[in-house]
């Protein structure tokens, strides 16, 4: 079984490797086979196996997002004589999780992609650069555990794409920033060299993610749409998440455009996004410096010298507050869930005790 899996071109083309082989062996039950989820819908998922594609029914996972497969997951299942006979078993432990805060202020997170190695943040140069949104997208990418890469799309519509690379590079310390054009092909090979493994494309609607994805795929496999001239916004041409093998190696996952970008509770992600600010803060005279009017504040000195902007400091403060609030709500929700589980177990124990005494 193991050699058959390792030699499977289908699995290999969709990201299967020795590490996933070991994970599968560790968690598999007798008769189980692995598959990667290509596309997940409510109650069903399309998967690729060593023998081809199949559709598997998935029982509801409730509030446990780790138990419900999403696009990019590796799962185990028991094959049947027909697709409808296949029985879903479990989701293998995820290596990375790309998610954002759910709309409405909920402490739960919306999973965008899993088992991703590279997150390409697409930012369009055909209009005004919105740095605060870019910082939010970068924070999501860092929080996933994958490697972020910045793709400045539609470079052919910008008068000086090289200067835009420098400008955005100041917002993304430690991240490759590449100007690309899906129309001319400029920068695509440079981007291809910067990405690896399973690649997720994220960004707002109209950023040109699908067009860039088609360039990487070498074929028009992803639907694309025009941007409205009246406001520069695009339509959601990607309605769901789907995995597609990239010629020459790798797997591409295009995601629907993000209208809102709620940060997760990861302090590390915010710190990575604003590593320049946090390094400056370590040089402040006081360890609890608020970077306001304190004497010896290295951050204020950098702002006065023009090295960083007041806008970037404000963005850092806002994202940090959001991450802290979400962490507090999440902790409160987990405490409430644990308390409910404890009460349920105690109730069951009391009922069982009464039955024994009867």
Automatic annotation (TrEMBL):
InterPro entries recorded for this chain?
A: G_CP_dom, P-loop_NTPase, Ribosome_biogen_GTPase_RsgA, RsgA_GTPase_dom
Q: Broadest EC class?
A: hydrolase
Name the domain of life this protein comes from. Bacteria
Residues at which GTP binds: 153-156, 203-211
The note describing how and how many cofactors are bound reads: Binds 1 zinc ion per subunit.
- List UniProt keywords, sorted A-Z: Cytoplasm, GTP-binding, Hydrolase, Metal-binding, Nucleotide-binding, Ribosome biogenesis, RNA-binding, rRNA-binding, Zinc
Q: Which PROSITE patterns does this UniProt record tie to the protein?
A: ENGC_GTPASE (PS50936), G_CP (PS51721)
Which first-to-last residue range defines the signal peptide?
none
Give one Pfam hit by family name: RsgA_GTPase
Domain called EngC GTPase: residue spans: 114-259
Q: Which NCBIfam families match?
A: ribosome small subunit-dependent GTPase A
- Similarity comment: Belongs to the TRAFAC class YlqF/YawG GTPase family. RsgA subfamily.
Database matches in HAMAP family: GTPase_RsgA
Role description: One of several proteins that assist in the late maturation steps of the functional core of the 30S ribosomal subunit. Helps release RbfA from mature subunits. May play a role in the assembly of ribosomal proteins into the subunit. Circularly permuted GTPase that catalyzes slow GTP hydrolysis, GTPase activity is stimulated by the 30S ribosomal subunit.
Q: What protein name does the entry list?
A: Small ribosomal subunit biogenesis GTPase RsgA
Query: Upper taxonomic classification of the species?
Result: Bacteria, Bacillati, Actinomycetota, Actinomycetes, Micrococcales
Q: Which gene encodes it?
A: rsgA
């Amino acid at each position: 079984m193991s050699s058959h899996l390792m030699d499977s071109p289908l699995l290999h083309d969709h990201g299967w490797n020795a590490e996933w082989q070991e994970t599968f062996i560790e968690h598999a039950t007798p008769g189980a086979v692995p598959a990667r989820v290509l596309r997940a819908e409510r109650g069903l998922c399309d998967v690729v196996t060593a023998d081809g594609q199949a559709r598997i029914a998935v029982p509801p996972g409730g509030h446990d997002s780790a138990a419900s497969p999403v696009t990019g997951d590796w799962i185990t299942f028991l094959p049947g004589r027909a697709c409808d006979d296949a029985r879903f078993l479990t989701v293998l432990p995820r290596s990375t999780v790309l998610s954002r805060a759910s709309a409405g202020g909920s402490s739960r997170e919306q999973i965008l992609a899993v088992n991703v190695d590279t997150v390409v943040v697409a930012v369009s140069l055909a209009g005004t650069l919105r740095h605060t949104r870019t910082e939010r997208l970068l924070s999501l990418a860092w929080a996933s555990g994958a490697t972020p890469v910045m793709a400045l799309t539609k470079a052919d519509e910008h008068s000086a794409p090289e200067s835009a690379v420098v400008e955005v590079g100041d917002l993304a310390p430690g991240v490759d920033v590449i100007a690309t054009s899906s129309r001319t092909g400029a920068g695509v090979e440079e981007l291809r060299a910067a990405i690896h493994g399973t690649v997720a494309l994220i960004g707002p609607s109209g950023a040109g993610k699908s067009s860039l994805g088609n360039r990487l795929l070498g074929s028009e496999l992803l639907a694309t749409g025009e941007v409205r001239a009246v406001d520069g916004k695009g339509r959601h041409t990607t309605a769901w998440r789907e995995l597609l093998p990239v010629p020459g190696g790798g797997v591409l996952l295009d995601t629907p455009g993000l209208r809102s970008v709620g940060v997760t509770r990861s302090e590390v992600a915010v710190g990575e996004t604003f590593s320049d600010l946090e390094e400056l803060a370590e040089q402040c005279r006081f360890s609890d410096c608020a970077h306001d009017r304190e004497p010896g504040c290295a951050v204020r000195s950098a702002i006065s010298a023009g090295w960083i902007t007041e806008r970037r400091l404000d963005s850092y403060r806002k994202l940090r507050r959001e991450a802290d609030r979400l962490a507090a709500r999440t902790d409160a929700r987990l405490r409430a869930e644990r308390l409910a589980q404890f009460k349920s177990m105690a109730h069951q124990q009391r009922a069982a005790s009464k039955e024994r005494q009867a």
